[in-house]
Amino acid sequence: MITDLDQAVEWLTTLHRFGIKLGLEQTRKLAALCSSPEKELKFIHLAGTNGKGSTGAMLESALRNSGFVTGFYSSPHLISPCERFRVNGRAIDPDEFARSAEVVRQAAGKMRESGASVTYFEATTVMAMLIFLEHKCDYVIWETGMGGRLDSTNIVTPEVSVITNIALDHEKFLGSSIAEIAAEKAGIIKPGVPVVCGSLPEAARNVIRQRAGECGSVFTEVQTGRIDAVAQVRENFQSFSFENENIELSLNGPMQQRNSALAITVLKTLNLWNERARAGLKQTRWPGRMELLCDCRIMLDGGHNPDGLTALSETLRKLYPGKKFHWIFGAFADKDFTGGLQVIAPLAESLGAVSFAEEARLSAAPEDICVKAAGMGIGETFVIDDLPAYLDEIKQRERGEVPVVIAGSLYLAGEVLAHLEKDKHALDLH
Questions:
Q1: What letters, b where the CB count within 10 A reaches 16 and e where it falls short, cover 39-70?
Q2: What is the spatial distance between Cα 167 and Cα 51, in angstroms, rounded to a whole number?
Q3: Domain boundaries, the chain
Q4: What topology does CATH give the domain 291-420?
Q5: What's the predicted TM-score (pTM) here?
Q6: Can you tell me the distance from the alpha carbon of 82 to that of 79, in angstroms, rounded to the nearest whole number?
Q7: Structurally, what CATH architecture does the domain formed by 5-282 represent?
Q8: pLDDT per residue over 76-106, tens digit each?
Q9: 15 and 120 in contact (C-beta within 8 Å)?
Q10: pLDDT tens for residues 255-280?
Q11: What is d(CA 7, CA 101) in angstroms, rounded to the nearest whole number?
């Protein structure tokens, strides 16, 4: 019997041996054994290559500030698995995590009797439903794990389906072209449920529009042309105009303008856009994404693919025009880290490469990162053997003109935050 967080995590970790199994049948069975909690909740379902978390955080903050009880299911976590389940912006407590895990463990045991094995993500998805139902959440921000059509989260019928953007990622599972990946993401569209999309490549737009038409769903694509030039931009603040309304954000980067335009359009689709929602949008916090830390000595971003690192580079150019940066970079070996390095090379004066402390076997070798970075013209490259000590050194330095930039993986972002942020509420959204 699971009675605490450590036991819950230990049980969930055993499920990793079943790997990634795309499909909905097992999640449906598992949820049914837990009394089908998804049937009692209102979901806003998000898919997309990048921007799901930021857009979800904006929706959560806007709805919470409007007086709604919010649930937010997201992945991966940065420090604690409790972060995957936020109620009113706060990660659930460890005891609640353990209780929900025990309910799902018992249901998974019944499935095992018939030869079915549950994966980690299937288990946490049903845990999330139970948690949000117990808290009587008015709206649940529901983020896909990977893809959409066969993702465990796709057993719900949402109030609105949201697709943030489409780029190449997870090709092994989702397909090797934009159109193939778009078809997987478009699988979250349900009959009669409106779909709102960020700006899309033409190949993706055609696929998603066709799916929406087949489902009788109203299709809306947010046009970036409706975002007017930035009125103000500085560290941790920007203001701009969208559809003739002045919008203010505490998040950094032009990408967040696009994400906020998407969030606003979703709220308008639900008839929930108002002054309280606007104020909530401004207060949005999303740790580990273009986040300035240590009195702006560090910019931390979990960007892990060329598309995400392009957004980070765009932000750096806006905040610090004409400057180059020292980078700390680490990545999973199965990601396109070479493409990522090509994106950041023009902004790199030097680069220190790291491996992950807990998952070194899955990391791209720091030596390989250095060789590739040097070949792209980055002047100084070196391996960082002791990341915590290196971070402590940065904290003690005088603040320079520009921050040290840490990027390449959300896993790396989590390791950095675990060292720098000791407050247990550091990753709450308010």
A1: eebbbbbbbbbbbbbbbbbbbbbbbbbbebeb
A2: 11
A3: 5-282, 291-420
A4: Protein-Tyrosine Phosphatase; Chain A (3.90.190)
A5: 0.94
A6: 9
A7: 3-Layer(aba) Sandwich (3.40)
A8: 999 999 999 999 999 999 999 999 999 999 9
A9: yes
A10: 899 999 999 999 999 999 999 999 99
A11: 9
